[in-house]
Specification:
2 domains; 148 residues; 52% strand; 8 strands
Length: 148
């Protein structure tokens, strides 16, 4: 019986000191602060997904510069293509709005430039439209952009 009491006291002590106190669990303000910190920057690895038919997978890294400028590089793989192609990215991040221009893309046999704008307000990603344009070609595709 005494072992159970010691274990219970130890558990209570751990719970009251972990996660900033407060019973051991983060409160709403802790969660909001954590999410705000995560959403403060777009620097790092990203994935972009366009669903089939003829889907696209993007894998890229963004860096933030001064004045909200964003640059990056990565790869694009069209579902029906044999290989990935390198892409470069420019854009802006004026929280919460992220605007990206993707250069070097090839889609359905066309050299295209992609643009996407969306609000980065959730760690669940940015659901937006990827607008592809090239000589004699234009197409809008729904895309999900996710920070890794």
């Amino acid at each position: 019986m005494r072992k159970i009491s010691i274990a219970a006291c130890a558990l209570m002590a751990l719970m009251s000191t972990s996660c900033g106190g407060g019973g051991g669990w983060p409160d709403q303000q802790d969660i909001e602060n954590s999410l705000n910190e995560k959403l403060r920057s777009v620097a790092g690895g990203w994935t972009g997904i366009v669903n089939p038919p003829n889907g696209i997978n993007l894998d890229f890294t963004l860096q933030e510069g001064s004045g909200g400028q964003v640059t990056g590089s990565g790869t694009m793989k069209e579902e029906n293509a044999a290989a990935t192609v390198p892409i470069t990215i420019t854009g802006t991040f004026q929280r919460p709005v992220l605007t990206l221009t993707l250069n070097g893309m090839v889609y359905e046999g066309h050299q295209v430039q992609g643009t996407a704008t969306g609000n980065y307000t959730t760690v669940g990603g940015i659901g937006t439209t990827l607008m592809l344009s090239g000589t004699g070609y234009a197409k809008d595709l729904p895309i999900l952009l996710l920070e890794k």
